[in-house]
Design goal:
Uridine Diphospho-n-acetylenolpyruvylglucosamine Reductase, domain 1; 20 strands; single chain; Uridine Diphospho-n-acetylenolpyruvylglucosamine Reductase, domain 3; 4-stranded mixed beta sheet; 8 helices; binds uridine-diphosphate-2(N-acetylglucosaminyl) butyric acid; 3 domains; 5-stranded antiparallel beta sheet; alpha+beta; Uridine Diphospho-n-acetylenolpyruvylglucosamine Reductase, domain 2; globular
Length: 334
């Protein structure tokens, strides 16, 4: 474990938001967690697990000790007739894991290419893109209860995955640290081309590499590169409304984008609602709505968490005034 004091967390969150941490502890292995919990000062202090900081809005100085998980390692755990089971340390970069599994000849993660963040953060928000959510490729994970050091494992059911949601945003919020994640990559491999944009780019005979390349190209065209422009990906969830309300949304915005769900409800494109309210490309202070995808809020340089949240609130108010729909913030706000 490595302990730093008086650290600006700007370099540790993809939004690039400043926040002063009294103590930042880098966790490299399981033994570091035991040492931390036994530490005379930090053991009992409140703890914030930072992960890759890719789905986070830091709006002030965090209380207690901030933990950066840097547990590395990736391996094929076993090969079953119906799947490759791959395990990775929580500190591995998710995009690297996707590329590596593909290079090894274990496809299945290609639709989730280039999603910023760490492996340990992926189950927290059940990352998803281009027709695949993590839960469809998830086997189990290992975690530590930060109150008493107890180790436990959770399978997919126990993680209570939902749309950008899991038990780690509710009952286990702030209380545990994910150390390792295991993925189940089904074999024989099958292309997942349900997402319209992807189907346009990839014929049904496409192999995993072609899908990977197409997903990378789509993301690079629509989403900011977190190394150059700070963001946390989509800032709001796509809202779900009862089908009876669709007509009134269409009356307000004939171009609204909607996806019927199996339960009869309708998911709307939040990006479209925000665009229809005139926000695309607009800024407020140093926060802005990304010009190529209105669902993404970006830090134009030097923005604070408060500025990001002020813009988010203004967007929520105009979408509510125009459509009567409350947009829910997707990243964790601290
Ligand atoms: N659209 C607009 N204007 C916009 C943005 C979108 O009209 O400014 C419409 C377009 O018709 C577009 C459609 O909405 O074709 C869908 O847009 P996109 O494919 O970009 O997907 P999304 O619904 O806006 C979701 C995820 C993304 C994920 C993409 C692709 C959420 C909150 N976001 O965005 O995930 O990459 O689908 O699967 O579900 C993330 O979670 O951080 C993220 C980037």
């Amino acid at each position: 474990m490595r302990i730093e004091t008086g650290v600006n967390l700007k370099a540790y969150n993809t939004f690039g938001l400043p926040a002063a941490a009294d103590t930042l502890v880098h966790i490299y292995n399981d033994g570091d967690i035991d040492d931390l919990l036994a530490h005379p000062v930090y053991g009992a202090a409140p703890k914030l697990v930072l992960g890759g900081g890719s789905n986070l809005v830091l709006s002030g100085a965090p209380q207690g000790v901030v933990l950066r998980v840097a547990i590395m390692g990736r391996r094929l755990l076993r090969e079953e007739p119906g799947a490759w089971i791959v395990e990775a340390g929580a500190g591995e970069e998710w995009p690297d894991l996707v590329a590596w599994t593909l290079d090894q000849g274990w496809p299945g993660l290609e639709n989730l290419a280039l999603i910023p963040g760490t492996v340990g953060a992926a189950p927290v928000q059940n990352i998803g893109a281009y027709g695949v959510e993590l839960q469809a490729r998830f086997e189990s994970l290992d975690a530590v209860d930060l109150r008493d050091g107890r180790r436990f494992s959770l399978n997919a059911g126990a993680c209570r995955f939902g749309y950008r949601d899991s038990i780690f945003k509710h009952q286990l919020a702030g209380g545990c640290l994910i150390t390792r994640v295991r993925l189940r990559l089904p074999r024989p491999w099958q292309a997942m081309l349900s997402y319209p944009d992807l189907r346009r780019e990839c014929p049904p005979s496409s192999d995993a590499r072609r899908i990977f390349d197409a997903v990378c190209a789509l993301r690079q065209a629509k989403l900011p590169d977190p190394k150059r422009l700070g963001s946390a990906g989509s800032f709001f969830k796509n809202p779900v409304i009862h089908r009876d309300r669709l007509e009134s949304v269409k009356a307000t915005d004939p171009g609204c984008v909607c996806y019927p769900l199996p339960d009869g409800n309708v998911k709307l494109s939040a990006g479209r609602l925000i665009e229809a309210c005139g926000w695309k490309g607009k800024s407020m202070g140093r926060a802005a709505v990304y010009a190529k995808q209105a669902l993404v809020i970006v830090n134009q340089g030097g923005a604070t968490g408060q500025e990001i949240l002020a813009l988010a609130t203004a967007i929520q108010e105009s979408v509510y005034d125009r459509f009567g729909i409350r947009l829910e913030i997707e990243p964790v706000v601290l």
